[in-house]
Amino acid sequence: MPARVTSRSVALAAIVGYLLGSFPTARIVGRIYRVDPLRQGDRNPGWWNMRALVGDLRALPVLLFDTAKGAAAAGVGIALWGPWWTAYIAVLFAMLGHSFPLFARLRGGKAVLTWAGGMLVVATTPALIAIAIGIIIAALTRRPAWGPLVATFTFPVLQAFFQPATHVAATGVLMTFIGLRFATGFAGRIRDLSTSARTKVSPV
Fold first, then answer.
1. Could you report the per-residue pLDDT of 42-57, keeping only the tens digit for each?
2. Has residue 160 got a pLDDT over 90?
3. 43 vs 34, 63, 108, 196, CA distance in Å?
4. Distance (Å, whole) CA 192 – CA 177
């Protein structure tokens, strides 16, 4: 494929992916039910926080649309007929858009669902198996949080049985981004707690 075509495909995948990811689903649903996920709960504008704030059923659109953003981005990447990793570029930029949304003052979530939606498109079989395992684990342990966690870390292992190592490595890059988002979020919470503690003991 000519370099010019490849560069155009990748650039377009990045732009479309970012715009898709920037759609602030949680904040829009929050406005309907008069909650602000940036100020309430764990202050993460994603499905898990919205689920805690408004309930499973009301938060369902956040789950569906945040997942669809990644799936749509991956689909665009594939449709552009670039190299195989064009779809991964599209998903990465959708994750960037979700985490730093253009339409929400760059204050977004951790992009786990957006990543999951992308993986459902680029590696459908291992993604479905990982989801099934996660559901089983959540049901057996009766701990809903364990399901997504197990599914996330099971996925690249399963992917290695179905796709080349280069694809698994690309998945690793995207998962590293998620890890960095969790790390920075945790650091921010610690900083906020520290600031709050200093304020409480301040003599003035």
1. 888 999 999 999 999 9
2. yes
3. 15, 17, 10, 16
4. 23
Spatial distance between the Cα atoms of 168 and 98, rounded to a whole number of angstroms: 22
**Is the dihedral angle over the CA atoms 50, 56, 60, 64 positive or is it negative?**
positive
Q: How far is CA 8 from CA 15, 75, 118, 156, in A?
A: 11, 16, 21, 29
8-state DSSP, 163: S
CA atoms of 40 and 130, how far apart (whole Å): 31
Q: Which of 189, 198, 49, 159 is CA-nearest to residue 112?
A: 49
Under DSSP, the state recorded for 61 is: H
Whole-angstrom CA distances from 195 to 41, 46, 181, 198 are 18, 25, 21, 5
Alpha helices in the chain (DSSP H): 3-21, 25-32, 47-54, 56-79, 86-99, 112-122, 124-141, 146-162, 165-201
Q: What are phi and psi of 36, to 5 degrees?
A: -120, 105
Residue 71: closest CA among 12, 23, 115: 115
The pTM of the full predicted model, rounded to 2 decimals, is: 0.87
Listing DSSP states for 18-44 in one string gives HHHHT--HHHHHHHHTT--TTTSTTS-
